[in-house]
Hints:
Number of helices: 16
CATH architecture of the largest domain: 3-Layer(aba) Sandwich
Largest sheet: 9 strands, mixed
Amino acid sequence: MPLQNIELFSPFPSSSRYNHIDINLITKDSFDDWNNGQTTPIQNQIAEQGFDGSAGAIFITRDETGKAQSIAAGSSESYSQIDGSKIQAAITSVFSKDMLAKTSFSISENNLDSEQLNRLHIGWGLAEYKFSAYKKPDEKSKNAALVISDKANAPRIKTYVESICLIRDLVNIPANDMGPEELEGAANTLAQYHKSSLKVIKDEALIKQNFPMIYDVGKASPRRPRLLDFSWGDKSHPKVTLVGKGVCFDTGGLDIKPSQFMLTMKKDMGGAAHVLGLAHMIMSLKLPINLRVLIPAVENAISGDAYRPSDILNSRKGITVEVGNTDAEGRLVLADAITYACEDKPELLIDFATLTGAARVALGTDIPALFSNTHETAQAIQSQSASDNVDDAVWNLPLWQPYRKDMDSAVADISSTGVGKAGATTAALFLQEFIDEDIEWIHMDVFSWEQNGKAGRPKGGADTGMRAIFAFLEERYG
């Protein structure tokens, strides 16, 4: 099914169509000056339609034949991605499918700088995304073609849209078509696209090569567990390793989830999707780093061979782990992968995982929880993430060391869950046990899902925190 071989989503045409319409951006502050420059009949139409430069509103100027000539589109002062998405939605709602099929649009540069244009184009592109691989063709579906402005950064715009929509596709594909093998196929296609090669350690080889917890979590499923591994870049550059939780479906194991919580568990490989999307950004925009990507890919299933609550598992690091709950499986597979990553001594190690419901209780679904063993790094990412250029807020939660005692076990070195209330922090503290002290580490507890649907952000698979981390990497290494 989809994404065994990746098809990167890029909605921008290479040239204008014979019917082409310019879009002029108007803000609330610039509305009066713009309106005063119009003829009286046009001003009357503007007043009748109630156009005042509000973000996402549009006003169409027509020629003497009644055909659309130009569009005034409302925007916020920041010219954000959301503004671009709202404008795209307004235009597709007004024009017919046939008219859009033969028409292209462009955003008039006017006084906009390159970053503002980039954001508007990205927002438009993200609004074009639809996940329809499993539906009959929709004869009413509309697409609006935006030609990228000369002043904008076309490679950057396309890469952002491709990377975010790659995450969406990977998460949206149901688990019957996105198991460990299919996730391997997607990672392999991406690695080959960037002239790298994927290494895979699979099934019994995980035991032989000392990845016991990855094997134990995945052994109950006929879709065999594996560790995916590829590298890219100049080896003389700083080494940055990304680790993504690839639990392709999570039943909860023997601590089975209630059905309402299992319904979205195809997204439990969202961490893996995030590192593949982030890797595509890094490689496409050629950041000067030596990149490594590690994904433990498993299915947490139920069978007679499933691991159990109170089992004591060995780990690659030699730490024994008492299983507190089989539904806390992600931290187990990540621990072995993180240990392996540290053996290569990266300068920076970043993991993404749909790890805890506690992070969602604390921060809701839009804002991922950020943890780091370097306070200055965490604060810098949080501050930068809320800027106009990133618009991807994250929030730093504490690695509060007094809570470590909550994971003490009477029979093993550590409990996988412990007894504490701060679930997101204790999960992060568990992972920290497997991080070498001299390695800078960032842990992202993400949701990977849009609950309701917003402008340019349809219900379903979603990026949460990926753009913030890329901005940090670009600031440090670019």
